[in-house]
UniProtKB/TrEMBL annotation:
The lineage of its organism: Bacteria, Pseudomonadati, Pseudomonadota, Betaproteobacteria, Nitrosomonadales. It comes from Nitrosospira multiformis. The keyword Protein transport does not apply. This is Cytochrome c domain-containing protein. The keyword Heme applies. It comes from the Bacteria. GO terms for molecular function: electron transfer activity; heme binding; metal ion binding. Keywords: Heme, Iron, Metal-binding. Residues 505-630 form the Cytochrome c domain.
Length: 881
């Protein structure tokens, strides 16, 4: 009986997912007049702007320098701007004010341009069964302040989101929150009357798209929407909010009545748009705000990434620990998110937010070793050569050749973005909802269940004014980051110098250790011979691994070490150095969790097919990776596929002191929430020690949080948990502590009946479909990584194990107290291997790998571990970056 309950949970999850996925044959939010033919399909939908005959040119980039105090005040220093741009745009120094205008437009694009994605996020609210609601995230209603317990007052500590300067809570004379009359009663932030108006709300200068109810029951508004009180989120009048929706609208019930706000047919007066800045603007590490809840614009930078962003709380605002979905999202550590959550690849893949540092050095490095080959639809990506503003003598024209050769930085962790810098920028906009009318014809958001097809750039060029307007603006965005992506230095931070050594000998030794052990992956300044291992500026495609292996072996030689030391010891080594080679490194060498390298969205025929190069798609297999059984800890060999997967690009070490916890999923070191220099350094010291002394790594997920901070999970321990029976073997044969993300409480898959098709809703009487229970301690990825497209023997084995258990669904739901979590886990033990058999990524240890400089590397690597004094010297040098 007990095994049947567990089995039915799994079956019901899959069945319900399929039923919900089948419930919406035509997205209801696509206006009829925007569809060519009787129903929406790929290539036959227009975005709302094109639907009402708005051209791309009717969306010029905003020119107000509203954010002038951000980014070290770069836009207020024309000479500094032209000095950084002149190497890429020769002659721009003759017109410094034009250079400043370009970067101002570029920054505005980054922070306030949403490209019509507000309709996408409104749709995702429905597809997430109500758990994701950005209007709730923006709100200060007393019900939300009570449970889960957030408002503008603690928005930074709860969500990790940046409160927009010049806003405050809307309260009465007694300090009690009020709904805003001018926002249909929503409990939103209000602008400080002492501040000037937001220039981007100017409806006359930036007229919004008049469609549906806009101009009738709601204003037309600006195409930049209204400022919301959170940087990166903008409010747009909802064109579906017609007279019937207005009559039904009740702002109090929206916050307090689940039967009302969990109705999939509820139409809200606003949709929330998201800019790139939502995930990338953050506190300036070198000039942090005195109060992180109340920053000034001078305390904010456009480029560090949202390092404190709580993905789980934002995407499941109720933060219900009884929800398996919330516990699944909680595997995304603060500052990390799974960028393929929407276009799911059936893998739990949280990755740290990308900082955008030293873009100029990064682009120069791409000319040396970033060659890729584009063919077919990949050639539809915009290149610098396509813009008349780029003169014939500009070096930016060297990044693309008519043959389809492109020289490109590699943006995503697995190096999949490989079509040029502008293509990388433009793809990000689609990933946050631009021209979602088309994108959602190619994917089934959040749940998958069907093969994905490529988002076609050619169709976007034809049917999306927002896409073309975005392409018109991303040149300026690139120029902005060429001018404004300098590192944040510890020496310039309040109290930072006391963390830096004044001992010249220690610092010199640290540089030498770096040259011998780190620079082969973490420097864009290398000996001239390095490029010879990657002929024709890249050694792209099926021969790449052979070239890499030859290069890697050379980095172990005395020749490399000596030449590299001479380079690192130069005074200007850190200047104009990206601090990464951006070469693709086999994950088998890194020994990190393999899931990030197995991402499939950019493979041939998948959703980002147009945004990855042919040479990426032709990469060879890296061989077999070492993984571990989640219960027995038994090491296993896992054959890695070819076609692009199996590689990770080295991250830049720029501003390394400010970016702990480390590894691509933020699992080395402890998270502290304030963003102060002292707390950043606590994270840094803990993380860098775990990197260089792997035996100090954690084995329990609660240890990743500062003591007493994460109370609802009982997270945050003073002492590291015992690691008995929680260590995992490395390729060296030695074992290190490791974390497997597990549920920390009994949980259920919870689906409000308002989001279910009627034929599933009939037997539900309490308003919620509960599927479970899932016992505390279950490896999250055992369930989240199920490949819903898998066929063959493994599936038959799983189905055979589950066969005959359908009759116990009611018993498992009605009498969950009759079985303990310990008993449930015992039953699960019979299902673990069949579940692993249908896993898209059966790697569960999240904080393993990157053993360079330690004695945990295998002997055949020929790199003996460093002594403690050398490790300490290296740390001193790393703090200067």
């Amino acid at each position: 009986m007990k095994s049947k309950r567990v089995a039915i949970t799994l079956i019901a999850m899959g069945l319900t997912t399929l039923l919900i996925g089948c419930a919406y044959k035509r997205p209801p939010w696509i206006a009829t007049e925007c569809v060519e033919g009787p129903f929406a399909k790929a290539g036959a939908v227009k975005d709302e702007a094109q639907c009402v005959n708005r051209s791309a040119e009717s969306f010029p980039g905003a020119d107000e320098d509203y954010f002038k105090d951000m980014d070290y005040g770069i836009s207020q220093d024309p000479q500094k701007v032209v000095a950084t741009l002149e190497p890429f745009v020769p002659g721009i120094s003759r017109v410094p004010q034009e250079a400043v205008k370009a970067i101002v437009r570029g920054r505005n694009n980054w922070i306030v341009w949403t490209g019509g994605d507000d309709k996408f996020w409104d749709h995702i609210n429905i597809n997430s069964q109500g758990s994701f609601d950005l209007l709730k995230v923006l709100s200060n209603h007393p019900h939300l302040m009570e449970k889960p317990g957030y408002s503008r007052d603690n928005r930074w500590y709860w969500f990790g989101l940046v409160n927009e300067p010049c806003f405050r809570k809307n309260v009465d004379t007694q300090g009690r929150p009020l709904g805003r009359v001018d926002r249909f009663g929503l409990y939103l932030d209000v602008r400080d009357p002492n501040c000037a108006a937001d220039p981007f709300e100017n409806e006359e200068k930036y007229p919004g798209v008049k469609i549906g109810a806009r101009g009738k029951t709601v204003p037309i508004g600006s195409y930049y929407g209204y400022a919301s009180g959170i940087v990166g989120l903008r409010l747009f009048p909802n064109p579906d909010f017609d007279e019937a929706a207005k009559k039904r609208w009740d702002p109090e019930r929206y916050y307090t009545d689940p039967s009302y706000y969990n109705d999939a047919n509820l139409v809200k007066p606003y949709r929330v748009g998201m800019s790139c800045g939502f995930c990338h603007v953050g506190p300036n590490p070198s000039n942090p705000p005195k109060d992180p809840e109340n920053p000034q614009w001078a305390n904010l930078n456009s480029n560090p990434g949202a390092q404190y962003f709580w993905f789980d709380r934002i995407f499941a605002y109720e933060a219900d620990k009884n929800s398996f979905a919330y516990q699944f999202l909680s595997t995304n550590r603060p500052g990390a998110l799974d960028t393929s959550l929407i276009s799911t690849d059936y893998m739990n893949n949280p990755r740290s937010m990308n900082g955008v540092y030293n873009l100029g050095a990064r682009m120069k490095n791409a000319l040396r070793s970033g060659k890729e080959q584009l063919t077919g639809d990949e050639l539809n990506n915009k290149q610098f050569n396509d813009y008349r503003e780029i003169s014939p003598e500009s070096p930016l024209r060297r990044f693309f050749e008519k043959s389809g050769t492109v020289f490109t930085p590699r943006v995503l962790k697995d190096g999949a973005d490989s079509v040029g810098a502008l293509g990388a920028f433009n793809r990000v906009f689609v990933n946050i909802g631009l021209f979602s009318e088309e994108w959602l014809q190619h994917i089934n958001p959040l749940i998958g269940g069907k093969p994905f097809t490529p988002f076609p750039i050619a169709t976007a060029n034809k049917n999306s004014s927002y896409w073309r307007a975005t392409e018109n603006q991303t040149l300026d965005t690139s120029l902005f980051f060429l001018a404004a992506s300098r590192p944040d230095y510890l020496a310039e931070a309040p109290g930072g110098k006391r963390h830096l050594t004044t001992d010249a000998a220690t610092l010199k030794r640290g540089k030498e250790v770096f040259a011998e052990n780190c620079a082969g992956c973490h420097s864009s300044k290398l000996p001239e011979k390095a490029v010879k291992f990657f002929p024709n500026n890249g050694c792209v495609g099926p021969d790449y691994l052979s070239c890499w292996n030859q290069y890697w072996n050379w980095t172990k030689t005395d020749e490399f070490r000596q030449e590299m030391k001479e380079i690192v010891l130069k005074e200007d080594f850190l200047a104009d150095n990206y601090l990464s080679t951006e070469l693709r490194v086999p994950v088998t060498l890194l020994e990190t969790n393999i899931c990030a390298s197995l991402a499939t969205n950019a493979l041939k025929g998948d959703t980002w097919d147009n945004f990855s190069s042919t040479s990426y798609k032709e990469l060879p297999s890296v061989g077999s990776a070492l993984i571990h059984h989640p219960v027995t800890r038994e090491p296993r060999s896992y054959p890695m596929p070819d076609g692009g997967r199996g590689y990770i690009r080295p991250p830049s070490l720029a501003s390394l002191w400010s970016s702990a916890p480390f590894l691509l999923n933020n699992t080395l070191g402890k998270f502290y929430p304030s963003g102060t220099v002292e707390d950043r350094m606590k994270s840094f010291y803990g993380g860098i020690e775990q990197l260089l002394w792997p035996e100090k790594r954690y084995c329990d997920q609660e240890d990743l949080y500062a003591a007493g901070y994460y109370a609802e999970k009982n997270y945050g321990a003073q002492e590291r948990a015992s690691c008995e029976n929680r260590t995992y073997v490395t390729r060296s044969g030695k074992e290190v502590p490791g974390i497997i993300d597990r549920t920390w409480a009994r949980s259920w898959l919870l689906i409000p009946e308002g989001y279910l098709p009627w034929y599933v809703r009939l037997p539900i009487h309490d308003g919620i479909l509960n599927l479970g229970p899932i016992p505390e301690g279950t490896p999250v990825s055992l369930l989240s990584n199920l490949d819903l497209e898998k066929r063959g023997g493994e599936v038959k084995t799983l189905l055979k194990t589950l066969k005959g258990h359908l009759g116990d669904l009611i018993a498992a739901k009605v009498t969950p107290d009759r079985i303990t979590d310990a008993e449930l886990r015992k039953v699960y033990s019979n299902l673990v291997d069949p579940l692993i058999g249908v896993s898209k990524c059966p790697d569960f240890v999240v904080n393993r790998g990157h053993y360079f400089g330690t004695d945990y590397l295998p002997g055949d690597e020929g790199r003996p571990g460093l002594g403690d004094s050398d490790k300490r010297a290296l740390i001193e040098f790393l703090k200067t970056m």
